């Protein structure tokens, strides 16, 4: 029975997309990592709580198939902010987050980091 569960989780991992824009924060990559940890011995892994394992699998399948999105359709593709899904994805991308952090820094902090980096380079040359 553990072999069947293992194969079901592997199939789910294969189908789950990896979003390159969310490096280090992607649910698909996290899922693959957790499945690898949980099934270290592959098909011969002994599962301590099969009911919990099955429940987790079913929950992940519902997320993957957009069960609740289809069950409760939205009237509009925007939220109360007026931001579309595409704009949200752009804002939540890892690169955008880094750019936002850079924008939050004040002028003095940017200059301090710039000069401290130059000093470190000069010190390493000596």
Structural class: mainly alpha
Unreliable spans are none
* Morphology call: flat
- Mean pLDDT, to the nearest integer, reads 80
Spatial separation of the terminal alpha carbons = 64 Å
Q: What's the total helix number?
A: 7
Beta strand count:
0
**Element order, helices and strands?**
HHHHHHH
Major beta sheet summary? none
Number of domains: 2
Radius of gyration: 22 Å
Percent helix among the residues? Answer: 55-70%
What proportion of the residues form beta strands (DSSP E)? under 5%
Keywords: Mitochondrion, Mitochondrion nucleoid, Transit peptide
InterPro entries: UQCC2 (IPR037698)
GO biological process, one term: regulation of skeletal muscle cell differentiation
Protein name: Mitochondrial nucleoid factor 1
Describe the structure in your own words:
The chain is 67% helix and 0% strand. With 126 residues, it is mostly helical. The protein has two domains: 1-73, no CATH class; 77-125. Helix 1 (2-15) packs antiparallel against helix 2 (27-38) and helix 1 (2-15) runs parallel beside helix 3. The model has no long low-confidence stretch (mean pLDDT 80).
Q: Brief overview, please?
A:
With 126 residues, this protein is mostly helical. The chain has 7 helices and no strands. It folds into 2 domains: 1-73, no CATH class; 77-125.
Give descriptors for this structure.
about 130 residues, mainly alpha, 2 domains, 7 helices, about 65% helix, about 0% strand
Please describe the topology of this protein.
Elements: H1 2-15, H2 27-38, H3 50-64, H4 67-71, H5 85-92, H6 94-104, H7 107-125
Helix pairs in contact: 1-2, 1-3
């Amino acid at each position: 029975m553990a072999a069947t569960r293992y194969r079901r989780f592997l199939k789910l991992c294969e189908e789950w997309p990896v979003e390159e824009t969310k490096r280090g924060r992607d649910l698909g990559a996290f899922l693959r990592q957790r499945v690898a940890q949980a099934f270290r011995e592959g098909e011969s892994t002994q599962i301590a709580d099969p009911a919990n394992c099955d429940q987790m699998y079913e929950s992940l399948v519902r997320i993957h198939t957009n069960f609740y999105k289809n069950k409760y359709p939205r009237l509009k593709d925007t939220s109360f902010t007026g931001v579309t899904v595409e704009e949200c994805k752009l804002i939540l991308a890892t690169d955008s987050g880094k750019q936002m952090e850079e924008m939050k820094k004040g002028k003095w902090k940017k200059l301090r980091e710039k000069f401290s980096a130059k000093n470190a380079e000069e010190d390493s040359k000596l």
